[in-house]
Amino acid sequence: MNVILFGPPGAGKGTQAQLLAKRYGIVHLSTGDMLRQAVASGSALGQTVQKIMAAGTLVPDDIMIELIAERIDAPDCANGFVLDGFPRTTPQAEALDAMLAEKGMSLDHVIWIEIDDAILVDRISGRFNCAECGAGFHDSFHRPKVEGVCDGCGAREFSRRKDDNAETVKARLEAYHEQTAPLLPYYRSKSIVETVDGSTQISDVAGRIETILEGV
Ligand code: ADP
Ligand code: ADP
Ligand code: ZN
After folding, report:
1. For residue range 156-198, what is the model confidence (pLDDT) as tens digits?
2. Which of 9, 79, 112, 214 could form a disulfide bond with 172, CB atoms 3.0-4.6 angstroms apart?
3. E strand or H helix at 210, and its extent?
4. Which residue has its alpha carbon closest to ligand 1 atom 18?
5. Proximal ligand: closest to the CA of 7
6. d(C-alpha 142, C-alpha 1), whole Å
7. What are the distances in angstroms from CA 49 to CA 127, 192, 196?
8. Are 5 and 17 in contact (CB under 8 A)?
9. pTM of the entire predicted model
């Protein structure tokens, strides 16, 4: 099963993608995570994208397309994947279609997590992740079951993203509305878009997505 989770920054794409990966045994492909790893490693790619990410604008399409093309080629993706943060522009969507067609693969679902901008700043300012396994949490909405301990792996170190500040969020929301939201009609024309209300609780959003994926 190949799924795209689509929505603005803070909508809950990463949270839901982690749940789907576990439930269906598919690979979670987060281009944001891939880029952050490149920045942390200090690679040439990391050096190129660091400032762009800090500003909250989009990394050029050719870089993103190459990054995802390489990743989708790996054997673990043959079993299915959930894309989180890609595609973000029309050229990225077209390139994805072309690479999947070449492999005889296709997209099964595009889930649009619909949510009001007003909610997103709170979501993003409270976000933190396990430094070990990447599991996502929130200061108010999704605290670890045991204070200070990751639910997923038991680690005690967490990290916050440098770009999760009010100023950068504004730029990221602008990029979403101008460059990413126009993808909806592109996928709508293929009749694979389903909309879920992203303002409800994490478990409710997850239930809604499962219903869609299981076709009931
Ligand atoms: P995205 O990947 O779309 O940017 P995340 O999944 O990282 O979004 O979610 C942003 C923040 O909001 C995280 O701290 C997450 O724990 C929290 N969150 C995600 N979904 C919900 C929800 N339905 N209700 C409340 N908080 C949520
Ligand atoms: P969020 O979860 O808040 O939506 P991401 O982690 O997906 O944010 O992305 C963080 C940053 O990485 C973006 O602001 C952008 O600079 C860059 N990025 C990630 N994916 C893409 C993409 N597909 N195209 C261009 N830039 C991207
Ligand atoms: Zn962890």
Report:
1. 999 999 999 988 999 999 999 999 999 999 999 999 999 999 9
2. 9
3. helix 202-213
4. 12
5. 1
6. 27
7. 22, 31, 31
8. yes
9. 0.97
